[in-house]
Amino acid sequence: NQSLAQLDPEVSAAVDAELARQRDTLEMIASENFAPQAVLEAQGTVLTNKYAEGYPGRRYYGGCEHVDVIEQLAIDRAKSLFGAEYANVQPHSGAQANTAVYFALLKPGDTILGLDLAHGGHLTHGMRINYSGKILNAVAYHVRDSDGTVDYDEVEALAKEHQPKMLVAGWSAYPRQLDFARFRAIADQVGAILMVDMAHFAGLVAAGLHPNPVEYADIVTTTTHKTLGGPRGGLILAKSEYGKKLNSAVFPGMQGGPLEHVIAAKAVALKVAAGEEFADRQRRTIAGAKILAERLTRPDATEVGVNVLTGGTEVHLVLVDLVNSALNGQEAEDRLHEIGITVNRNAVPNDPRPPMVTSGLRIGTPALATRGFDEADFTEVADIIAEVLKPTYDVEALRARVSALATAHPLYPGLK
Ligand code: PLP
Predict the structure, then answer these.
(1) DSSP readout, 13-71?
(2) Substitution site in 99, 150, 168, 172 for ligand 1 pocket (most atoms within 8 Å of beta carbon)
(3) What distance in Å separates the CA atoms of residue 243 and residue 181, rounded to the nearest whole number?
(4) Helix (H, G, I), strand (E, B), or coil: what is residue 62?
(5) For (6S)-5,6,7,8-tetrahydrofolate, which residues are the binding ones (predicted)?
(6) Residues with beta carbon inside 6 Å of ligand 1?
(7) Contact predicate 43/264, CB 8 Å
(8) What is the phi-psi region of residue 308: left when phi exceeds 0, alpha when psi lies from -120 to 50, beta otherwise?
(9) CB-CB contact of 219 with 195 (8 Å)
């Protein structure tokens, strides 16, 4: 019964160092967030010891009476939060949720139509060396050169040409709301199943600040750890007619025992996401992203020719476009890291620079909004970022401004 620090000082020290890193820096990776302490607590419980293959009330192991209560709570909360007829809370990750959907409803060689990875799509939407691209016949649609938004006319033309079994909407790097009604209409024209992967914007949907894809799609998948702010994991929502096939594709099709400690943490996160404090946080998340887009593109902001894709944002992230700038994505990411701001470089559509360098940055506001940042704080963050992108900048002065923001918003004050 030794503590982690006693039993394994090496792992313990690295965990402590990671907590310090999260506290002392400004986390702006758009897919990250800070799970509430109650979520961390649920995930660190004895539930990790329990095997529970099957579903609540129909398990292949004894002793599941308590994990049944927990998993049913998670299912009921997911359904009620998003207005879904069916929920499966067992996928270990977003990628596994998507793969389980394909496994449930498609056969090898079937055609899917999804957003190109280089235009903001996800690996699991048909990337060449992902399982989805290897097993399925993946066709990609794109964003328009003219304004960076999804080219719905191309989606429709490709759908008619390729007759996909499934149309996939959703993104990892795209700053606008999607037109779900248009996707539904296109899917209906060719008799395709419509799947929406809302991994990035599920928290905005939960807060009522983004159209709800559940009202349009046959299947909706998500991660639980991005804007939704829960533990790392996946979730599938669907019309009830798909439930039986989806259940058996997740287990026994793709996975063995569910991670009931993670499912408990998902249940807690879904409870949090139904509350008013969560909605306020999502409002600050979007407001922060809009402030970044506006301030970074002011004519005199950076002196190096920074644009943002689509000219702004409606969600929790901004895609900085450095195509016309001497500064590349790698240099910009490194400079921000140097002053304590964590972001990721990101290829922009038709990026002239190589994938390890890129001409873009993806900057997200969910984690800082969770930390309590308001519009004044995001204004200061935007101005710090603009400063560091200038040809010359004062590292020490910018580090001090980052530190002041971090200190003003303590992270996990209850954790030692
Ligand atoms: N779907 C989308 C749209 C994503 O952005 C991501 C992760 O970045 C995933 C799925 C995969 O989630 P995970 O990393 O949990 O497998």
Answers:
(1) HHHHHHHHHHHHSEE--TT-----HHHHHHHTSGGGG----EETTEESSS--HHHHHHH
(2) 172
(3) 23
(4) coil
(5) 117, 121-123, 241
(6) 31, 93-95, 98, 122, 124, 170-172, 197, 199-200, 223, 234
(7) yes
(8) beta
(9) yes
Q: Which two tokens stand for residue 124?
A: 């699991």
Report residue 109 as tokens. 């060689």
Asked if pLDDT for residue 304 goes beyond 80, the answer is no
Q: Which two structure tokens, joined as six digits, stand for 357?
A: 């360098």
Residues constituting the chain: 416
**Which residues neighbour 407 within 8 Å (Cβ) at sequence distance 6 or greater?**
none
Specify the residue with its C-alpha closest to ligand 1, atom 9: 94
Say if residue 99's pLDDT is above 80.
yes
Mean pLDDT is lowest, of 221-225, 298-302, 379-383, 400-404, for 298-302
CB 106 within 8 A of CB 116: no
Among 122, 127, 266, residue to substitute to test ligand 1 (most atoms within 8 Å of Cβ)? 122
Nearest to 25, CA basis, from 416, 414, 413, 409: 409
117 is in an annotated binding site: yes
Q: Between β-strands 137-141 and 111-115, what pairing exists: parallel, antiparallel or unpaired?
A: parallel
Known active-site residue 215: no
Bridging pattern class, strands 166-170 and 111-115: parallel
Residues 116, 244 contacting (CB under 8 angstroms)? no
Residue 308 three-state SS: strand
**Nearest-CA neighbor of 365 among 143, 159, 201, 119?**
201
pLDDT digits (tens, 9 = 90+) for 392-404: 999 999 999 999 9
Answer yes or no: 226 catalytic. yes
The two structure tokens encoding residue 208: 């009522």
User: From the CA of 72, how far away is ligand 1's center (Å)?
Assistant: 24
Catalytic status, residue 223: yes
Identify residue 342 by its one-letter amino acid code.
T
Q: In the numeric block, which tokens belong to residue 35?
A: 């799970």
Cite the beta strand spans of 96-239 per DSSP E: 111-115, 137-141, 166-170, 193-197, 219-223, 234-238
Q: What percent of the chain shows pLDDT beyond 90?
A: 96
**Whole-number Å distance between alpha carbons of 235 and 129:** 23
Cα 316 to Cα 370: distance, rounded to the nearest angstrom: 12
